[in-house]
């Protein structure tokens, strides 16, 4: 299909695999849960399928070249020569597609294939359908796509950049840059019943003198949780030859204002994700176009800390665009969950983590209302 005046030359349509399709495969193997509501799942599947078919009809009618891929089969090779990615499903499909757009050069359009109708919002039913996506990241819905999609294809729509989280994990012999997170990171013990122990601080880039020491100052420390170590006591917190210096990408940083944390983990969110899990955990809503991040320690255990007020003030806060958060993982096992439970990175004792807002921003279409 040749393009006929459209703003975009080639589209990649990423299609959600519905719960009905997933459970149907399990049913064939005799592994599907017994309590499934098949009619409800099938209804959601049919709505989604109708939306996909309508989208492909719109693209063909406007002579736009495109290819399709299932969300679970998406790979970087599918992005060759693509200048717009369209995610059809819900917020989860948008997040999955965004992980492959780590350079931020290809814009992303989300379409909510099964939104709540106006009637659903007004009429309070005894059995509400909890499986519908909120569609917070979707600029288009199945209900308005016939008018909105053609406008976007020819250069219209509201396209703006969203900040994302950069996370780098430094282990003993490797340094791993994780895919940018559009919503949030959860850093915690793999078991929700276990304590997550880590040391948290802020990084400041420093210069080193020829002898390997710091030119300007050292770090200051706080203590929280059940630990009693302090940066002021080298016997309790071993230092390397550069004092509190650590390196990421070969760049030396000094760790400042650090504290030991015993908790249920740490949330870090973007402005985009501030209305999701972060808000439910007690964080604050942010302007979605802000480039700052915010963090929140979950269930911070500070009952035995002498400086409770000082530590409590660091329970949650903002991470400005030019700041770097640093963690040293002190539990035997840990895990970083990226934008939900599907994508994760395992941690080991002693791993160091750098978190900031330096990831390439994502060009994402937003609702115009």
What does this structure look like?
It is a single chain. The chain is of the alpha+beta class. Helices cover 18% and strands 30% of the residues. It is built from 7 helices and 20 strands. It has helices spanning 19-28, 38-61, 91-98, 118-122, 145-153, 277-280, 308-312; strands at residues 10-15, 65-70, 84-89, 108-112, 140-141, 158-162, 166-170, 175-177, 184-188, 196-205, 245-248, 251-263, 266-269, 293-297, 316-319, 324-329, 333-338, 343-348, 352-356, 362-366. It has a 7-stranded antiparallel β-sheet with strand order 8-7-19-16-10-12-11, with no helix packed on it. Strand 4 (108-112), helix 4 and strand 5 form a beta-alpha-beta unit. The two termini are 33 Å apart.
Summarize the structure.
With about 375 residues, this protein is an alpha+beta fold. The protein is about 20% helix and about 30% strand.
What attributes does this structure have?
about 375 residues; alpha+beta; seven-stranded antiparallel β-sheet; six-stranded antiparallel β-sheet
């Amino acid at each position: 299909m040749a393009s006929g005046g459209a703003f975009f030359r080639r589209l990649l349509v990423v299609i959600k695999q519905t719960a009905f399709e997933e459970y149907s495969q399990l049913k064939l193997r005799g592994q599907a849960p017994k309590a499934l509501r098949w009619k409800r799942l099938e209804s959601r599947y049919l709505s989604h399928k109708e939306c996909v078919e309508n989208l492909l009809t719109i693209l063909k009618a406007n002579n736009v070249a495109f290819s399709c891929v299932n969300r679970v089969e998406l790979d970087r090779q599918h992005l060759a020569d693509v200048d717009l990615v369209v995610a059809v499903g819900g917020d989860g499909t948008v997040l999955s597609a965004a992980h492959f757009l780590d350079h931020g050069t290809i814009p992303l359009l989300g379409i909510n294939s099964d939104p709540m109708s106006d009637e659903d919002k007004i009429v309070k039913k005894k059995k509400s359908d909890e499986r519908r996506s909120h569609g917070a990241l979707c600029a288009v819905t199945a209900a308005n796509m016939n008018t909105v999609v053609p406008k976007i294809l020819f250069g219209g729509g509201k396209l703006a950049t969203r900040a994302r989280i950069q996370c780098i994990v430094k282990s003993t012999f490797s340094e791993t840059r994780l895919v940018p997170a559009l919503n949030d990171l959860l850093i915690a013990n793999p078991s929700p019943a276990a304590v997550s122990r880590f040391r948290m601080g802020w990084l400041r880039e420093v210069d080193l003198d020829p002898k390997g020491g710091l030119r300007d100052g050292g770090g200051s420390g706080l203590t929280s949780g059940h630990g009693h170590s302090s940066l002021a006591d080298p016997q309790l917190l071993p230092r390397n030859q550069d004092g509190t210096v650590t390196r990421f990408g070969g760049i030396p940083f000094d760790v400042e204002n650090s504290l030991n944390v015993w908790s249920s983990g740490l949330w870090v969110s973007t402005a985009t994700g501030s209305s999701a899990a972060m808000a439910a955990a007690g964080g604050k809503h942010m302007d979605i176009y802000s480039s700052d991040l915010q963090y929140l320690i979950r269930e911070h255990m500070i009952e035995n800390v002498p400086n409770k007020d000082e530590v409590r003030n660091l329970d949650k806060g903002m991470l400005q665009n030019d700041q770097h958060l640093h963690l040293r993982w002190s539990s035997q096992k840990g895990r970083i969950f990226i934008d939900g439970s599907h994508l994760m990175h395992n941690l080991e004792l002693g791993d160091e983590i750098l978190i900031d807002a330096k990831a390439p921003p994502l060009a994402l279409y937003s609702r115009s209302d």
